Amino acid sequence: MKNNLRVVGALTIIAIMMIMTACSGNGGKGTGGNANNDNRGQETPISASPSPNVEKKNSEITLTVQFPKSDNVVEIPVYEDKMKRFGEKYPHVKMVKNDWWYKSDEIGIKMAAHQAPSGFYVPATEGGTLVGHEWAADLTPFLKNYEFANDFNEKLTTQFTVDGKLYAVPKNAYISSIIINKKLFEEKNVPIPSLDWTWDEFYEAAKATADPAKGIAGFAIMAKGNEGGWNWTNFLYQAGGAAQEVQDDKVVSTFNSEAGVKAMEFMKKLRWEGNAMPQNWALNYGDVYNLFKQGRAAIVLGESGQIEDAVNNGGMDKNDLMILPMPSMEKGGAHVGVLGGNYMIVNPQESMEVQQAAFDFITFDMFKDSEIDVLKTVLEDRKAKGQIKAYGSAAYYYKADSEFGKKFEALLDKYPDNVYKLDPKVIEAMVGIPEPAYNGQEFYGTITNVMQEVFTNEKADVKALLDEAAKNFDNEVLSKVTIQK
């Protein structure tokens, strides 16, 4: 692959989950939503100055800040505080709020209308699309004067690196893994799986823990929206497959390979032979985890964030929950999960002065003691409420051996009763492969359509369905992809 964004690469992650201080959304997809951007948001009374290396030091500029929607009561104070502190340091940049959050079917319209924020969150799946359409600014000019430029975790920058140039700042990441309800295993006298489990063992565990008469599923997978394809891609990767590849400067689908057929046939087996899935299998992100919190699913895909939700919001006992690496297709194989996350890009339509201010705002708390202070506040709050904060199955945006990384770990160690950490052996076993870089969300939706047909029709021809889906996806979507040269 030449002069283009790298699509996949196996990355063994041996870190734990970073604090997500400024993003909301499910499955790395962002919060979505539509905003009325006719006036590009509500002007705030806060102003700030650009970074010292911007030419127009004394000129007032306007920075459009991506801001949480009005019903996001948790994140609004976080953003308000950040804007206040940013304004105190840089008093010559006027900030306005814009509550539009990325959606793959809206980004083209927003960019054409010049209504996107000066900097905004995007999911890992959008790297190829954004760079190819020149909707993400090259960060090289800003990184030259950024003291922490060499401290970013290079395992996370792959998705947005083209010809050695970085086009997005990584914020948080995850590797999909397995969460089990040990209580349901024990009730059915089913052995707890080992770390080195396989598809066969996964199937037997899901089949044995299912109790359809009681409305208990052995395995609940998302199969309603794009999340379905997102979940399934884990099994595609475990079978050694890939969603897409670049051939002669064109992106083409490869999910209808032998590996893709194996992965979809495995889903079919779980559904029809094992009767392991919920009778109502058309579940979205929230549905699956609500089912799990209700004690009606023994196995789900997820990561440590769902452990936190299950304990703090579902009333579950953390001792009944366990995270395992993904199963390998065969004994001795890799325990592969989707590596995804959220990134921040700078809007290239803005002037260089505004772009610099946007970069400064995006990175304002990164690698700083101020972010450690935010984490301490969160941990103190959880301690007071008797709740936990979970960290694991993910990669930090920074290098673990950096000065900041050491401070972060040291603080976590001070709250042993309120921090849920993954077993280091589980983390060691995990292998992450990045999400598809080109039109990933549309790919996920395409796969969900195939899953729904397979879950509806016991006699569905998996190979034929995948071939037809790949043909249509190539013609309707990937044929329009622009490869950055």
Tally the structural domains: 2
Shape, per Cα inertia axes: globular
Distance between the termini: 11 Å
CATH fold name of the largest domain, please?
D-Maltodextrin-Binding Protein, domain 2
How does the helix and strand content classify structurally?
Answer: alpha/beta
Helix content: 25-40%
Fraction in beta strands: 15-25%
CATH C-level of the largest domain: Alpha Beta
How many distinct helices? Answer: 17
Low-confidence stretches: 1-56
What name goes with the CATH superfamily of the largest domain?
Answer: Periplasmic binding protein-like II
Strand segment tally: 18
Index terms:
485 residues, alpha/beta, D-Maltodextrin-Binding Protein, domain 2, 2 domains, 5-stranded mixed sheet, 4-stranded mixed sheet, 18 strands, 18% strand, disordered N terminus, SBP, Bact_solute-bd_prot1
Write up what this structure looks like.
- This protein is of the alpha/beta class and 485 residues long.
- It has two domains: 13-175 and 340-427, Periplasmic binding protein-like II (D-Maltodextrin-Binding Protein, domain 2, 3-Layer(aba) Sandwich), CATH 3.40.190; 177-302 and 439-480, D-Maltodextrin-Binding Protein, domain 2 (3-Layer(aba) Sandwich).
- The protein is 36% helix and 18% strand.
- It is built from 17 helices and 18 strands.
- The strands form six sheets. Strands 1, 5, 8, 15 and 18 form a five-stranded mixed beta sheet that branches. It has a four-stranded mixed beta sheet with strand order 10-13-9-14. Strands 2-4-3 form a three-stranded mixed beta sheet.
- Strand 11 (244-247) and strand 12 form a beta hairpin.
- Helix 8 packs across helix 9, helix 8 packs across helix 16 (440-456) and helix 16 runs antiparallel to helix 17 (462-476).
- The longest helix has 17 residues, at 369-385.
- It is globular.
